[in-house]
Amino acid sequence: MWATAVGVARVRALETERQNALFRDPLARAFAAAGGLWPSSPPPDDEAARRRRLAVSCSIVIRTKFLDDLLQEASEAGVRQVVLLGAGMDSRAFRIDWSDGTRLFEVDTAAPLDFKASVLRQERAVPRCERITVAVDLREDWPAALAAAGHDPTEPTVWIAEGLLIYLPEDAVELLLARISAQSAAGSRMGLTLGSRGSIERFGTGAAPGSAASMWVSEMPDDPVSWLAGHSWEAESHTLRERAAAYGRPFSTPPRGEERPGGLISAIRR
User: Fold this and answer.
1) How far is CA 88 from CA 47, 79, 113, 149, 241, in A?
2) Which residue of 25, 50, 62, 188 is 20 to 30 Å from 19, comparing CA positions?
3) Average pLDDT value over all residues in the chain
């Protein structure tokens, strides 16, 4: 599945080249090139597939900006531990201006972390904080591995699960959240992206076998704010459309009926 992370890097590389980019990710192009997805991949012939790709690309750009802002706010609030779950080709350790003393843990399986390390060596990339990789499958006891790597659950942490939960069945999502909550001191923060209601039907149905959308299995709860409150998190929910408009990238297509709570989540542990 880590090849999907290379596809995300390609989207970020394309955004970085825009004059009015919402973020700059200088390493994204190197990840995409090493994964065989640069300079470009041919556009799909099928109109539905083209629209699907465009929608997914837009969501990646908006969620990246949303989580960048969340991380910077957490850093300014004094949080010095960052955990990226399913880190993939995330390069925030290298491109965000972190406060002194920040420790950033990248949790993923060995294959993507090894691929990533080879590209980082090639690019001679230097992190802007203490970067610690934790090679473990999220289906295993990743909290123990994280603790062994130096994570301190008595200090606040900002957790990021970006583009991850939609690939997990509901029981695995609940377990992941329970484990995050157990490792989170008061004042911890969390940024999640959830598959919006209907996304699997709209984009997963008819998706090419092996594509990212073909592996989506889990959509968000009807009321994500209440769901997280049940785990002692005070959350806010935003739609992609709301955030896109706020960032000066309004969607050109009208909403399909009444829009439900959104899949971009920011939360604070009280």
Assistant:
1) 29, 22, 7, 18, 25
2) 50
3) 88
Beta bridge partners of residue 130, listed in sequence order: 103
What pLDDT, on the 0 to 100 scale, is given for residue 224?
87
Pairing mode of beta strands 81-85, 264-269: unpaired
- Report DSSP letters for the chain, one per residue: -HHHHHHHHHHHHHHHTSTT-S---TTHHHHHHHTT--S--PPPSSHHHHHHHHHHHHHHHHHHHHHHHHHHHHHHTT--EEEEET-TT--HHHHS-PPTT-EEEEEE-HHHHHHHHHHHHHHT---SSEEEEEE--TTS-HHHHHHHTT--TTS--EEEE-S-GGGS-HHHHHHHHHHHHHT--TT-EEEEE-PPTTHIIIIITTPPTTSTGGG---PPPS-HHHHHHTTTEEEEEE-HHHHHHHTT---SSPPSSSPPSPSEEEEEE-
- Torsion angle of C-alpha atoms 101, 16, 73, 87, degrees rounded to 10: -60
For residues 33-52, give the mean pLDDT: 75
Q: Which of 172-176, 183-187, 212-216, 254-258 has the highest mean pLDDT?
A: 183-187
- Name the amino acid, one letter, at 184: S
